[in-house]
Amino acid sequence: MWDAIVIGSGISGLTAAAALSRRGRRVLVLEQHVVAGGLTQTFRRGDWTFATGVHYLSGAGPGGHLAKLLSTLGARPVEFAPSANPYDLIRLPGFEFGIEHPESAYRAALHARFPAERAAIDAWFDEMAAARRAAMTLLVSRGLPAWAGHGLRWVRGRAIGRHAERTVAEALAGVRDPMLRAVLGARGGDYGCRPSTAPVLEHALVTGSYDEGAWYPIGGPTRIAEALVPAVEAAGGEVRLGTEVRSIRVAEGRVEGVEWRRDGEIGIERASHLISTIGLHGTLAALGAAAPADWTREALALRPGLASIALYLGLEGDLAAAGASSANVWIHEDVDVDRVWRAPADEDAPALFVSFPSCKDPAHAGLPTAEVLAFCETDAFASWLGAGAAEPDDSYRALKDWIEARLLAQFARHFPALAPRVRLHELSTPVTQARYIRTPQGSTYGLEMSAARLRSPALDVRTPVGGLLLAGQDIGGAGVHPSAISGVLAAAAIDRSAFELMR
Question: E strands of 297-355, at which residues?
């Protein structure tokens, strides 16, 4: 009998388990993959090491909240290296703009580049500040008991609603200069949403989190799991890999454990508290008929978000000499930054996100690397996604090869000095994401970032099933930092003293 069971070993699952372990609880973490870490894991191909989901982090500088949290929870330190400043580069046809920190420097650079839009720029930053305050209120309310969370949202509901319902495109409607609109709205890839549907609240929270700079784990993102897993084990817990949760067992409205499968063996583990980090839809699937009907209806009304295609590049030589740096590069093929890739087999990606992890990490293992991401619709992959989907076959592999060649050519056009240095390339698709991370329809950040998601009562940490708690990106929001916070909030719902670990 465990004190708690955690489904999933991503950052939220490991922070939840480590927080409970720091309070003397024995926790079992069940992970269907053979590697712990979720989207913080890395993988090797020959002499190249690639990260799967970490491109930069907020709150990881000296005294930063994420850095302090990992230091408190982990069995060993995680160190971070600062990225360049500007840390994001926006490239539009014939135009480039670097986004600096702190925000005052970013604002000053915009004033200098777009002097005729000074009033619109100031109004934008004022709105971002107000939206961030509303976002923090919403995040805190997710972890409170139902009566307290509803009360907080009732008191601050007008502010939350205003920034949740208003889209980035609507907030930018008063900006006359199309280049300025594109710069301000270009980074929706950080939370998987385009300006026409992205809530101002989420945009403000994510982009504003880099006010103290962008950071990267020294030694790679896998250092996070390497710090947290031993903390769980030191308290008598276990992180069990290659173990699929077949179902969540419920009796009289309360969880009593899970049924699992590993290497053909099936077993049951029992606990009175269960933290699910496999997403809202994945949790409902594991509950089956035990899921309350009202909660299920509310949850299924929320759609999966955008998916992405990632091209992993292994290179050789000095990337800095060829123009690469630790800054991320956001490339848009025109000023319409609302476009996503609809037909990846038939057209170039309208936007690319390019990151050079080996330039960010002073302790990078192996030869230099680059990662190219493009957000896409999933229609081209529908045959291999969802319930009853076909297994990847020759037609899937042919589609992958075609997309890979197209992305390689597009990368070469934008980075002609780097293209001759490519020695290895490998593509992942939404099908890959669905296989390893189990997000609905292979979506990058789980549920669609929308006003409906932000205001949905189905996404609180506490659920209608007694003892069942939620954590992860569906609860905390996109990215490592909010997901880590959601894990501690779930732990604190079991042991209130875990809140102290957040300080």
Answer: 307-315, 328-332, 351-355
